[in-house]
Batch of 2 targets.
Target 1
Amino acid sequence: MVRVVESNSVSGSSDVQLSLDSIRESLIRQEDTIVFSLIERAKFPLNKPSFEESRCLDSGNSSSLTEFFVREMETIQAKVGRYDNPEENPFFLDNIPHSVFPSHKYPQVLHPKASSVNINKRLWDIYFKELLPFFVKPGDHGNYASTAACDLACLQAISRRIHYGKFVAEVKFRDAPHDYEPAIRSKDTEALMKLLTFEKVEEMVKKRVEKKAETFGQEVKCVSGDESENYKVDPSLVSRIYGEWLIPLTKDVEVEYLLRRLD
Ligand SMILES: O=C(O)C(=O)C[C@]1(C(=O)O)C=C[C@@H](O)C=C1
């Protein structure tokens, strides 16, 4: 029998079961979206001018094509309520309009200060300067519109994952307030980092995303014979993307959130 697993999200349903297990299940499901988005982006070379050069024909606009595209997409997505969802955080805060439709009532799970935790500016810089050149081929083939669409998919999937750190931190705080409160009061970020770290879980995440990259990125053949493996993105790079950027950024969000948790 086939079991279809619903995409899960802790704040999407009205019946919120906040537990570390349910949050981790959501992070596991998000891995699929992230790995697919990286595979999609890797179809294209770096295409640096799309995000580095200001080539807008509108003289009053100095954005790169990618920045222009992300700003415009965020505006339309805000109008249909994307950023009413506490799981979503915009990259460009200055131009976020209100939803023009009745908004969904998301359960208040997080501390009200949660909305002030947004590290997307940092993510933007890391993504274009370090992460992208790490997993895509160098080169410029000029198809910037399709490249920008793939970059938006990667950025949004990664942003959602790292800002999920707010939910992870909330559940960890609720499970052990007496452990966390002294470190929060003394703003001891090192102690907070230690409390929230589970090295074995991190190792498992890195192994699992490598396996997912192998599975989702393999060439699917109908005829057996040529068994050589040719992956769309090197699976070990996906594991390193998690180890070097995604997990550390998630932990930074957890710390940022916890520091505001008693305000
Ligand atoms: O699962 C957790 O406890 C998390 O905080 C998430 C996460 C991760 O980013 O995957 C981050 C820190 C922990 O050390 C383990 C895993």
Target 2
Amino acid sequence: MKMSDYWTTMASLVGMLAFCQTILQLVFPPELRLALIHLLTRMRHVFSSHTYFDITEIDGVNTNELYNAVSLYLSSSVTVNGAVSSTSNNTRLSLTRVPNSSSVTFGLSNNDRITDVFNGVTVLWEHVVVQRQVQSFSWRPMPEEKRGFTLQISKRDKALVLDSYLDHIVGKAEEIRRRNEERLLYTNSRGVSLDSRTHPWDSVRFKHPSTFETLAMDPERKKRIMEDLREFANGQGFYQKTGRAWKRGYLLYGPPGTGKSSLIAAMANYLGYDIYDLELTEVQNNSELRKLLMKTSSKSIIVIEDIDCSISLTKREKVKRKNNNNGCYDPDLTNGSGLMDEPGSSVTLSGLLNFTDGLWSCCGSERIFVFTTNHIEKLDSALLRSGRMDMHIHMGFCRFQALKILLKNYLRMEEGEVDGVVLKEMEECVEDAEITPADVSEVLIRNRSDAEKAVRELLCVLKERVVRRRKSGGVKKKKEEGEEDEEEGEEEQEKRALDSPNGNREFFGFEDEKDGDEDADK
Ligand SMILES: Nc1ncnc2c1ncn2[C@@H]1O[C@H](COP(=O)(O)OP(=O)(O)OP(=O)(O)O)[C@@H](O)[C@H]1O
Ligand SMILES: [Mg+2]
């Protein structure tokens, strides 16, 4: 018998069995009917070219996590770009909105089907809902309906499901869950009791609109950061294999208004993480800092803004001056700052480094530390040393690529829609103008109802700034260094400072400090 004949015969047999099932439902009493239906279903499955997997909502008495995961997963495959995909037009969708979420999710209605394609294999999902038989007594009341998903997959592709499809579904569902839930912004306040019962962090809903799409930044750098974040979030296996704590540190530096806080918000929105905004000045000592860390959840970003303004670092430098032994100061050998003078009285650099680096940083997992500063040169070399913060990101003045993103954000103007001559002029002067994205935004917001006017005014502002800077000697005639610009210079400077111990001292302002001290003494 030919293969095709074989399958045709099988298909007619399966069809016949299905027909018998329907007849049975009409003719026999319920108990007998149920038993025969079971028998016929089994026979149908034996002769069918497909394998079936049942995923019921309640497994014994416990809720089946896989059911919820499939439900969420299918809700995402139903909506692609807002359009209904991979379902026939007849498919009914149910709409749900979970508490604390602003987004609506689609789901498969009762007894409807949907196809999904994974690694080139098409599978069929059916949402099976049947009425549960009435229970006379139960310790745990069951829902009236018995719900489950049936996955139909070709027998030859069975291994695929067991190997990777279900893992894929669980991973995707987790991602959707995080995306749908609203994120929280936590902050610490002074004097909160840190006993085991109270929560030292206050939280509010975090609804910052900043995303990587709206962030005005060079697209290449943006892409690199996004890849880095994605790799981190998906890197559980890597961190386990290499024996590293599953955490990552970013140092964002640059002038005010260049988007450091906006980048943090974009990171949180991108990964769906909560933010812990740690106010270091409110933390009384290292042990309080440690307790705060212990009460953060995983999948979170722990932020310390303006780290150079933190009291601990200033104190540390004062102690360093007192203890200075011919400039051979090593922040890692001493235990940091004011500790020696005032034990336990304040947060010290070593306490902070333990917080990010030491054993305590590993309680919990999947955490990102972000420090920001306007003055990287004021930071202690111990914080900048390699291995401390994994990525140093310079947020600089607005450049042409970033400017175009801002025009799109605020005026909805694509590159082609702006007058070519004006755009060219902007390109020529934007770097010399040394304008922050915040200042550009301000001009655009002010004139957002009239895009033409906004662009004209922005060009005037840029030109004025260039003229002003030229007068004050801030702009060189023409950059002979070509593209070797200031940003590169700053990063180079940072590297050089770290490489050389003497350079280090200058770069991190140890020389300036003397003046500062003298001022203070006066
Ligand atoms: N790179 C950017 N992309 C998009 N918007 C930006 C960017 N930089 C600044 N802005 C705009 O300027 C405002 C201030 O930016 P933001 O608070 O992120 O700057 P910052 O670098 O954190 O400043 P500070 O050092 O003062 O904390 C933001 O609300 C945002 O609208
Ligand atoms: Mg900020």
